[in-house]
Amino acid sequence: MFKHHTHCRACNFAFSAPGTKCQPNDRLIPVLDLGVQPLANDFRREDETCEGHYPLKVMLCPRCKLAQLSVVVDPKTLYSNYAYVTSHSQTMMRHFDELRNDIMVETTVANSVLEIGSNDGTFLAFLKNNPFETVLGCDPAENLAKIANGRGIPTFCGLFTVENCDCQKAKDVVIARHVMCHIDDWTDFMVSLERVTHDESLVVIEVPYYKDMINRNSWDQVYAEHLSYMSIGAMEALCARSSFHIHTIKKYGIHGGSVVFFLRKNGSVVKPVPYAKDEDQALGEWQMLSDNKEDMVLELKSLVADLRTQGKRVAAYGASAKSTVWLNACGFTAKEISYICDNTPQKQYTFSPGSNIPVLCEGMLTADLPDCCICFAWNFFQEIQAKEVIFNKTGKWIVPVPSVKVM
Ligand code: TMP
Question: Which of 20, 113, 362, 404 is the most buried (most CB within 10 A)?
């Protein structure tokens, strides 16, 4: 199930519905079309049915220029049983360390923390008693909330909405890492934040930064969960109609380039720290990304076709959501790519959505030693390459982002 998107999440501008009479500047502006795709994290076992296919189209708000998907897939379909598990990689642990240090610099009080979209509780486990005495998670995925509760991280299983958060006590710090762009109703999100914060709380929102995505050609970050592609201007437009303001902003390399918004309530006594603004999202930069995407898809397809003509065997690494977007954009199947290695137990021995390529464990690469391996987890490439010492001796890596390269 999905619905058409009707109001800008940031500035609340009402778009004309498709097929209705309207002024040209009432419409969302189409900027990137990835066709109709399966859900990027719908990894399923042989006996499970697929959750369907959905349009994957990015549009700009004509007023505040926030880029957002044209449709919204029902969150119950997306998140009830979710395959994405927070990475335990060294890259992620370094990021957690840096983020915690930055939170500690910005916060004035650090006894309690709530994490929205807390996944399996990995970041909260990092923060528990270090220094937060009270930690609470909130995540709609039953499989992940169960893991978090099992490891001693109290986790409410449900969406972060006004209805669900009303009974929460105000927390000193509220964190939302890579979840805000998954949320459809930002008005409800901001009101919910108001309910779970006090005057001196710090709200920490980490999202992929749209400019990094464009500069890095990472159009594979466009999938059904990522409803919005955040800019600083869009966050300002949203804050302007809430009781929060941007206290300061920091940028990080994680997930191909992320921005963290530190928000405070308008009544806070702490003065905001000046930050660099960015320009409005422009049609031209999105069109450039769209053109580059066409070229990159053609390049990877012809590279794999050439390798196959030479009788070479090709595998892939990283069953990320990004890999699903790539595989469906290229129309690859298990004929072209034999399997995908991934260290996430929830993904192993499943099939990649749409392409039906089997997902196997990491050890497969050493056991099989294919001629080439496409690293779809390009954001962790250095770490993965350093680990695969045996494959490195005989095989070649292909890294598809920011441009298709044989390493
Ligand atoms: P992500 O970029 O969406 O976090 O996805 C990265 C995927 O790559 C995820 O499914 C886990 C996988 N992965 C490995 O299999 N081995 C690794 O060493 C790392 C860092 C990630």
Answer: 113
